[in-house]
Each structure stands twice: as C-alpha cells, then as structure tokens.
Amino acid sequence: ILRTPFEFEWSRAGRLRLTGNVEVAQVSLSDGAVGRALFELTEGRGAGTSMLWGLQARYIISNNLRASLSYDGRAPENASVIHTARAKLSATF
Q1: pTM above the 0.85 mark?
Q2: Which of 2, 29, 52, 71 falls 20 to 30 Å from 89 in CA-CA distance?
Q3: Residue 38's pLDDT is what?
Q4: Which of 63, 81, 62 is nearest to 73 (CA)?
Q5: Could you list the residue range(s) of the whole structural domain that residue 77 is in?
C-alpha cells in the first residue's frame, strides 16, 4: 500500500473549527488474496487506486451548546463512490 495523505485545519476565534483530509492510495497485490483476506490486507480498499476525503466542522454556539457536521467520501477503483454525512448537536446541562 502506497498512501499520499493531505490534512488541513482552520479555526476562527475559538468558536469554529474546520478540518479536512484527502488521501490517495495505490494498492498492489502480488498474490491472489480473496474475501476477508483481501479486505484486511488492503484496509478495505481493494486492489488499485482509491481516494478517501473528508470535511469536519465544529461550532460552539454557546457555553452549553455545540454543533458538528462531518462529510466523508470514498472512491474505490472498482466500485461506486460512497458518501457519508453526519450532523450532531450537543447540549450540556
């Protein structure tokens, strides 16, 4: 597995923080692994070139209220792109 990751972070006045990441991976197999062995050996990516990316945002609304959003994407070489989004609101009492 050959990986090329890139990460960034940006914050503003302690209330908002954005983080993101992009990773390109090239997986080459010399043996014919299949099934669970293929999944484990390639970290779930499969053989070939794949990409992972993500963006997270955290915002402090008040002392007791926080919000976060996240988006992740994955593009395996031999499958459709997978998108995942999450939203979270946390309150402290």
Answers
A1: no
A2: 52
A3: 72
A4: 81
A5: 2-91
CB 83 within 8 A of CB 71: yes
* Pair 82, 52: CB distance under 8 Å: no
Report how far residue 43's alpha carbon sits from residue 24's, in angstroms, rounded to the nearest whole number: 13
Work out whether the CA dihedral 29, 34, 40, 46 comes out positive or negative. Answer: positive
What does 25-84 look like in DSSP terms, one character per residue? EEE--SS---HHHHHHHTTT--SEEEEEEEEEEEEEEETTEEEEEEEEEEE-TTS--EEE
Structure tokens at 29: 């197999």
> What does the pLDDT profile of the chain (93 residues) look like in tens digits?
788 999 999 999 889 999 999 999 988 877 766 677 777 777 777 778 999 999 999 999 999 999 999 999 999 888 899 999 999 999 998
